[in-house]
Automatic annotation (TrEMBL):
Residues 134-233 form the OmpR/PhoB-type domain. The modification 4-aspartylphosphate is found at residue 53. The lineage of its organism: Bacteria, Pseudomonadati, Calditrichota, Calditrichia, Calditrichales. GO terms for biological process: regulation of DNA-templated transcription. The keyword Chloroplast does not apply. It holds the Pfam family Response_reg. CDD domains: trans_reg_C (cd00383). This protein is a positive regulator for the phosphate regulon. Transcription of this operon is positively regulated by PhoB and PhoR when phosphate is limited. Residues 134-233 bind DNA. Keywords: DNA-binding, Phosphoprotein, Transcription, Transcription regulation, Two-component regulatory system. It comes from Caldithrix abyssi. SMART domains: REC, Trans_reg_C. This is Phosphate regulon transcriptional regulatory protein PhoB.
Amino acid sequence: MSKKVLIIEDDPDIADLLQIHLRDLDMQLDCAEKGPEGLKKALDNDYELVILDIMLPEMDGLEVCRRIRERKRSLPILMLTAKSEEFDKVLGLELGADDYLTKPFSIRELIARIKSIIRRVNSLKEETKQKDEPVTLEFADLKIDMEKRKVTLKGKTIELTAKEFDLLALFASHPGKAYTRENLLNIVWGYQFSGYDHTVNSHINRLRAKIENDPSNPTYIKTVWGVGYKFAEEEDIKD
């Protein structure tokens, strides 16, 4: 079955180029030139991927990304920009982008990134279906529904971004296993993004603020000094 992809790009030459090559991959395409138009399409339709330019008329891509994430936490987003400043890259990742490509880019690189994102999403879905372990992981007051991507704490739903959920799901699936920040970047973001360890730190801090009774003395997500982070082993988590 072909994948449905939304392209939000105001440069007609780039938009046309994307459409030509993505149709060769048997993808169904929708396009939008302005931020508000693209946001509405993203929220009103089901897509496998959104390709989102940062510099857009009326509403920039960072704001579009933020608003998509408020409603569709697991929808993959690949951001494009003519800028190369670290600020844009970090902010795009902070807002929940799955990948980031700087213009000018090669079509081969773009297609490789798109295939990587879709492959990673499909792999996660298949892994969830095939696991013998329960779809819902439970640790004291914390429940993680892997299939529905839903987290509850003391019976109340906790709203997580896509990357916050991916981090928590990875940790909770492997209690006691320590991950370096580079490990987490590679696994959760799906490609090498060395030098952005602070992105992991900020995601961990926000995740702790949402699921820990005392983020400064966490029950679930522990710091492993000199290494990175781990999820507490089950026998160490108290009801």
